[in-house]
Amino acid sequence: MKTENTDFIIGRHPAIMALKSDQEINKVFIQSGLKADAIAQIIKLAKQKHLVISNVPKNKLDMMTDHQNHQGVALAVAAYQYATIDDLFDNAAKHDEDPFFLILDELEDPHNLGSIIRTADAAGVHGIIIPRRRAVGLTSVVAKTSTGAIEHVPVARVTNLVQTAKELQSRGVWLFGTDMQGKDYRTWDAHGAVALVIGNEGKGISALLKKTCDEMLTIPMIGHVQSLNASVAASLLIYQGFNSRHPLE
User: What are phi and psi of 7, to 5 degrees?
Assistant: First the structure.
């Protein structure tokens, strides 16, 4: 995967043109309080594409765009090229291993995504699948948080996660989701071709994708806080997969 030259598209007219095109866009940043017609059009186009829209103060936009004339709008675009599903399978074959994939369902925090990519690289995950809409993509923040792992873990961006999940199943991959009512993750045997599904930070896995999973896993908790940060939960599950695939002799 190679870096592109630009992380942001700035300015009202360039933003409108990009939103009307097939340009890969990760997130839309709008300066708080602006009411111009062009801003309203940008918001409308972004909503039609189901993109994440963040209202931010002017000083944050100034910093993000290196104090260029952003006119109150910036579109975060892919900092890295995306892989295909076939690329992920090829990566597993290159290592002469059964596929071990991650499916991330509408993750929104770039720091979570970057951390997950870092863990995935450490544990030998062969690829990550993210949705095109309602989720963070491969931004410069993700790249920085991954501390270089983004160069080694292919990430595929797909239009429909449920259809992709079914395609994986048709190719022999067993899907494991995360849920409060699943089996204890410490019993998970990740031998064979597997994909681990991690849900959104707040909503978890979407209902249709959950129904598609072959089995659900849960992380037992005995403390007062009955939830974990998405990247922390993913790390525990990824390393259980690693442990079962590479047991101590």
Answer: -100, -20
